[in-house]
TrEMBL record:
Region entry Disordered, spans: 676-702
InterPro entries documented for this protein: PNGase_A, PNGaseA_N
Organism: Gossypium anomalum
Keyword Membrane carried by entry: no
Highest taxon above the source species: Eukaryota
Domain Peptide N-acetyl-beta-D-glucosaminyl asparaginase amidase A N-terminal: 68-397
Keywords carried by this UniProt record: Signal
Leader sequence residues: 1-24
UniProt name for this protein: Peptide N-acetyl-beta-D-glucosaminyl asparaginase amidase A N-terminal domain-containing protein
Length: 702
């Protein structure tokens, strides 16, 4: 027993220096023995609750589906046994027979089961080299588990409906032996939802109007090019970036009539960089002879190059895979984004002018401070001018300063405090002349990063606290009006706490917790189309293990998650908790739309266009939008119609436009919106003949 305590203590120390590896990172087998031992120990310490839920899931909003019957296409069924280092599984893909219809929504459904003992594995799904899904498998139990992922893949519409046979590839590198017995049984299905009958589709190709253009901007790309590895290969189609000096790149060629380009980047980090946010600075590692501990400090960024020049960056969300830190945290509620990893969009339209020469160009990826290994690839989404064989463009302005990373460290032996911070701004402006006219696109990426790392008790105590702010803004305008505005304000928070205390011979207590947060405010506007959303998603997991006199006296773990999404599309709210693998509570709150009743005063009798222009001029004033809009009560249809009449806006647009105005106005700290219910207004009106604004035409005469 003593030796097992020693080994546990040793492993925990190892854990502190080099936090637990999940096997989503298992790529190179050379480290496998260490990690297998490491993990098998951990697996043994987790008892399986015979009544534990077998359905594992990620808490996320549902996809808003049209009220039509989908046409479903079972694309692939495969059992992933010993697939590590083998070629991806491929099948032919042709659009389904129902293809003659128009679809408003296309959903990918990944459904898998597994039974036995197995690590978490990373996997990818590609169609013609374009990545559709990156995910991490759930760790099975001997009794078997099931999980599924629904992903809205409507944005890949042009690829999914291409009338030709394409190759669909899935790589899931699994290893099966006598100990690790779990085979992943996977079904992949695409569901195509036809448009609702009463929805009009404006298919008038000849009508050139601003709204038409704006809607095109708003909708899906006409062509998507893969920036990934070509088959055949014995691995995923992603590129592997193994150190900070490595840039992986791919040649591509675009048609000469492109007017918009967006690069969608997929990223996952493994092995020595799986927990990059907890990596120590190299001087600390050297001073303490921790040569096997991953270093390079806790700052990472993915830099994107076009023909060798920087065009954008990604400061990634800290996804924790299902075996990460403490696998029991993630059963049955998995870590944020672990089943469906986020991809990141970078608007590269300002640089289009350089790519329209009909010649090959190169996109490349590097990772600042990288250790082995990062899996990266991208999809290039392109919008084509159907009326012109050739567009032209030019870069007007580009400003980019490499991220300056500030590091502060103060340590003595293994005890110490480390602060790392950085920020970066990448801003580009370019014009494109197409049949729509000469449009200028301004793209801004703004990043801020803070990380504090504390080690005490000679390594038995460790706290990591990290915050990333990642803002993207894109403004496309004609000389006198905006065509398209898209803004995303993201914050990624991570807090990790671990405390190990020896309480005499054969006794110790180990406490750990993790907080993970993914927040995003999104706002999109083009012509009559408008979209706004707020997401607050926070997970807190904690565990306590107490051992007294060589036997476990306490083993508790639990995960709490609060998910709130308010969007123009749907509203979804969930408050859920698990304790020792069982769901403790799961409450869907009565979700209230953000917009309730509002009264707009004279100051706000401005067009949406004006407000957008003002945000263009002062983008920095809007970077932190308020989250206190729940106070506003539900607008009645009467209010809406009043406002429509009053403002002369299209009724259909009004509700959305109002939402946007509230955001804009509050975001700029102006007091332009007065919250008042109809009831209150009626009372007031009775009392002092007050505001007649919504009640009669006479208001318009003032
Ligand atoms: C499992 O459920 C059964 C019946 O509901 C119950 O008797 C048993 O105590 C439960 N076992 C555990 C470990 O919770
Ligand atoms: C996959 O589909 C097959 C055939 O339809 C079915 O037998 C199997 O149970 C499915 N497996 C999963 C994990 O859904
Ligand atoms: C797809 O292509 C085939 C042959 O090229 C053609 O016969 C068929 O009509 C096309 N289908 C659609 C829906 O366009
Ligand atoms: C990266 O390049 C620098 C300069 O050439 C070199 O000193 C360093 O060892 C390289 N690092 C790796 C990981 O290859
Ligand atoms: C690290 O190793 C060197 C050389 O083996 C030794 O002199 C030094 O004391 C060691 N430092 C620590 C903190 O163990
Ligand atoms: C398009 O507009 C930009 C900026 O206003 C200008 O520099 C460029 O010359 C224009 N291009 C054409 C072809 O008119
Ligand atoms: C980063 O940390 C420093 C020092 O703790 C603090 O002054 C600064 O406001 C933080 N920045 C962000 C973006 O959190
Ligand atoms: C590290 O801190 C602990 C208390 O947290 C103390 O007992 C130990 O002596 C310190 N080690 C060094 C090298 O200062
Ligand atoms: C983690 O646990 C410690 C000790 O109980 C506590 O001080 C800290 O607030 C916890 N952190 C989170 C994010 O729950
Ligand atoms: C620890 O356990 C052993 C064997 O169960 C027992 O003999 C011993 O008295 C215990 N020691 C303490 C301090 O409880
Ligand atoms: C979530 O539910 C728990 C238990 O009902 C409650 O204590 C907690 O306040 C709720 N949290 C939020 C943010 O609603
Ligand atoms: C932000 O708004 C304030 C007050 O409205 C103004 O003084 C300031 O110049 C604005 N900042 C920027 C960067 O436009």
């Amino acid at each position: 027993m003593a030796s097992s305590l020693f080994s546990l203590h040793f492993l925990l120390l190892l854990f502190l220096y080099q936090p637990l590896f999940s096997m989503a990172n298992l790529h190179k087998s050379k480290n496998m023995i260490l990690r297998s031992n490491h993990r098998s120990h951990l697996i043994n310490t987790i008892p399986f609750n015979e009544n534990s839920s077998t359905v594992y899931f990620e808490v996320t909003k549902p996809i808003k589906l049209p009220n039509t019957k989908p046409c479903s296409y079972h694309v692939l069924h495969h059992d992933f046994g010993f697939t590590y280092g083998r070629p991806p599984v491929v099948v032919n893909y042709t659009p389904p027979a129902c293809y003659s219809q128009k679809f408003t929504k296309i959903v990918l459904e990944w459904k898998a089961t597994c039974k036995g003992t197995q690590f978490d594995r990373i996997f990818g799904v590609w169609l013609s080299g374009v990545e559709l899904l990156r995910g991490c498998t759930a760790e099975p139990t001997p009794k078997g588990i099931i999980w599924s992922v629904d992903k809205d893949i409507t944005r890949y519409n042009s690829l999914l409906l291409k009338n030709q046979t394409q190759t669909l590839a899935v790589y899931l590198g699994n290893i099966v032996d006598q100990t690790y017995t779990g085979v992943y049984h996977v079904n992949l299905t695409f569901h195509f939802y036809p448009v609702e009958c009463n929805v009009m589709i404006n298919n008038d190709e000849n009508k050139i109007s601003l709204n038409n253009l704006a809607s095109n901007y708003y909708s899906k790309a006409d062509l998507i090019l893969p920036i990934s590895q070509d088959r055949p290969l014995n691995d995923g189609l992603w590129f592997e970036v193994r150190n900070s000096n490595e840039t992986k790149s791919k040649q591509f060629q675009i048609p000469e009539n492109v007017y918009r380009a967006v690069l969608e980047v997929y990223i996952s980090f493994h092995e020595n960089d799986e927990f990059w946010y907890g990596n120590f600075q190299n001087d600390y590692i050297a001073a303490n002879n921790l040569s096997d501990t991953p270093g390079n400090g806790p700052f990472r960024e993915i830099v994107i190059y076009l023909d060798g020049e920087v065009v954008g960056a990604v400061w990634p969300f800290t996804v924790i895979y299902t075996g990460g830190i403490n696998p029991s945290f993630w059963t049955p509620i998995t870590g944020i984004s672990s089943f469906n990893l986020p991809s990141y969009d970078i608007e590269i339209t300002p640089f289009l002018g350089n790519m329209l020469d009909g010649k090959p160009h190169t996109l490349g990826f590097s990772v600042t401070n990288a250790l082995n290994v990062w899996f990266i690839d991208a999809n290039l989404h392109l919008w084509l001018d159907t009326r012109k064989a050739k567009t032209e463009g030019g870069l007007v302005m580009f400003s980019n300063k490499a991220a300056n990373v500030y590091e502060e460290s103060d340590f003595k032996g293994l005890n110490g405090t480390f602060l790392t911070s950085s920020k970066r701004l990448i801003s580009s402006t370019g014009w494109i002349k197409s049949s729509y006219g000469n449009m200028t696109t301004h793209s801004i990426q703004e990043f801020r990063y803070n990380n504090s790392l504390q080690v005490a008790k000679d390594g038995d105590f460790q706290v990591v606290d990290q915050m990333i702010h990642f803002n993207d803004r894109v403004y496309t305008k004609m000389p006198f009006h905006h065509v398209h505005v898209e803004e995303s304000f993201k914050t990624f928070h991570l807090n990790f706490y671990a405390d190990f205390t020896v309480q005499g011979e054969g006794s110790f207590i180990f406490f750990s917790n993790v907080t993970l947060g993914f927040n995003e405010n999104k706002y999109k506007h083009g012509g009559l189309d408008f979209f706004i959303s707020f997401l607050r998603n926070t997970q807190k997991a904690q565990s306590v293990i107490e051992v007294k006199n060589y036997s476990t006296t306490k083993r508790l773990r639990g995960t709490k998650q609060v998910y709130e999404y308010h969007g123009s599309d749907i509203c979804y709210s969930r408050n859920i908790s698990s304790s020792n693998n069982l769901i403790e509570y799961d409450e869907g709150e009565n979700c209230v739309m953000i917009l309730k009743s509002i009264k707009v005063n004279k100051k706000l009798k401005v067009s949406t266009q004006f407000l957008i222009v003002s945000s263009f001029d002062h983008p920095s004033n809007k970077s932190s939008l308020p989250w206190s809009l729940e106070a506003i009560e539900m607008a009645t249809s009467q209010t809406i119609s009043c406002i429509s009449k009053h403002s002369g806006w299209n009724q259909q647009v009004t509700e959305k436009a109002l939402l946007m105005m509230i955001m804009m106005v509050m975001g700029q700290g102006r007091d332009g919106v007065v919250v008042e219910s109809n009831e209150q207004r009626r009372k007031k009106k009775k009392k002092n003949g007050g505001s007649r604004w919504c009640e009669g035409e006479e208001d318009d005469q003032q």
